[in-house]
Amino acid sequence: MNRARRAIRSSARRGALLGVAAGIIAAIYYQVWPRIMCPPDSVYSGAPQGEDQFVYMSLARAIWRSPNGFTYEYPFQLFWPAPAVMLQFPLVLVAWMGRLFGLPMGFELARILGCAGTGAALGAMAARLCPAGSWRRWFCVLTLLGGGWFAWIAVGHAFRISGPGGLTEWWEYMPYAMGQLYSWLPFVFQNIVYPMEPLYHAIVLGGLALLILGRPGLALAVGLAVWFSHPFSAAVLSSAAMLYWFLRLIISRCQGKPAGLHLGGVCIVQLIAWILISAIGLAYYRIFLEQWPIYRALNAQHQVASVSPLTPWQAVGLFGPFLPALLWSVASPSGRRHVWHHPGWAVLGSLAVAQAALLFHGALLRTEATQPFHFNRGYLEIGLVAVTLRAAMILSIRRLAPRTPGAVSLASLRVIPGWFVVLAALLLFDQPLYFIRALLQGVQTGYVEKDLMETLNSLPDSPAPQVVFVEAPKNAILVPALTNHVFYNMPEVMAVPFEAEREARFNAALDSPTTDSLARLGLSYAILAGKSELNQRFQQQGWELLREGQRYNLWCVPPENNKNLGLAR
Fold this sequence. Notes:
26 helices; mainly alpha
């Protein structure tokens, strides 16, 4: 037992160190390379993820303004006030680190910590589930770096579109093979490109690892915490855990022995506990937060399909390599015994089934589905790889081990079947092709025009965040991300509810004959294009020109008209 624990700790430690190394390399690339390659008329904001990261930075600044440093007011409330009741633990961590080191570095530290946690969780799983180092290494390599058959489907697209010469740019045909799935990063290591995703992975995989290691109480604590971290990640962990305990309950009832009856009691308690924490999480989002119109509208904006269902070829690319092993685990008595009856492998088998259900609910519900690709950030791959690797282990033992029951040699546990090596090799092309394409394209987001950045820096500081109207919608998010103020509106963004009503109110105020109609909206500043006709309209209402830049002008409301509404005041 002590040797097994040492092996688990050693494997987790190695995984964490490798994760730290990968996170540091990614952080250096995303913070140094864009500054070197930055266009001369722009500056790099330190947000390589672009718009999504700017939203996260806005939320982190809202946590800075929070009186307790944990919960926060939604920064895009405006006319629909709500108290500081939003809570996301990873964002709290980023906000605290951002206070000490700056927000860009706070996100990079989150990336590094998330990579370390992900590596540690996968290392612990591998040591617990795989008896020999050879299988352990394959487990880690395939769960982290594995893919599907999309690279080989891309070959067909290359020949169809460009002929044999298309293979010289093989990676450019991956989006054709994967469709919308390409941008949703369905494999684990891809998600290192987003600073927050490794942190979410660390939480979810940490909870699964605790279940595999036989620490259900700690797994429950993680399951509760993840509901207040990221609802999609919470759905991943809770659905897998509930399915796992339900299957364990069925198996224990079928055994009909005292040991099985005891296990059944444990399973009932755990299943009820997971249902309760899921109910708490859902009640927080769907009942408690929806007391306020802004949060109710925000939830509604996220309950959209956002993608088309998988095409048959995409389903083949995602599931094809693993379907025989999955069928073996269900249809074969040996598969059921070695996967679903095993307390460790059953966790990852349940993860695969739960992920498949979350993915295909989009095909069933169509427009009523809730972002089916958002649940899978590599978790489906982990579950399918685990079942396939388990099948290879059992089949190799059967082929090489003596016929004597229970006599399994260590040599048979170390032998990797040739067919599995070939299958594994075919899975190791999708993610490298993704990264080749990403590296050739470079970092394309996070850049801000110099004149716009100087305009943002010219916004005066104030105790309460002021509302800034930004004429160019794509630039509006920079206000709450890079300053202590908030924007008035930003159309076509899931983070900003009531955009049509905001626009209607602004147009009505702009056409009003009164000189303080814009100020009555709560606007304190406006950033307009230098040649925009709106400059004259704001000037007619008595606004003062604080800065006249090369491309952008900064206007300020007259002091006597400043309503100083700030956030929904």
